[in-house]
Amino acid sequence: MESTSLVLSIVSIANMGILGILIVIFGKMYGKTRAQLPLGMIVVAAMLFLHNVIGALAYFSMEDIFSHEIFPYMLGVGIAELAGLLIFLKITLD
Predict the structure, then answer these.
(1) pTM, 2 dp
(2) In sequence order, what DSSP letters do the residues of the chain get, joined into one string?
């Protein structure tokens, strides 16, 4: 595996870990309150989780067709998502 695909996959896996934690937290909130907001957040987090699963699989299986010139942009998007999810997790836990 190329180092670029490995880095992109690691970022996607980190995003999936945070999203999994958020799904569990929102699931507990929904179980206690039956409010619609946590249910909506579960759907949003699940879709982002699916996005990262597909991305990670693509990085592993189609590394030959990825252009090296696009790597910084894809990495920037992944890191921005990771930063946003970390902030979202911190806000959720407060």
Answers:
(1) 0.86
(2) --HHHHHHHHHHHHHHHHHHHHHHHHHHHHHHH--HHHHHHHHHHHHHHHHHHHHHHHHHH-TTTS-GGGHHHHHHHHHHHHHHHHHHHHHHH-
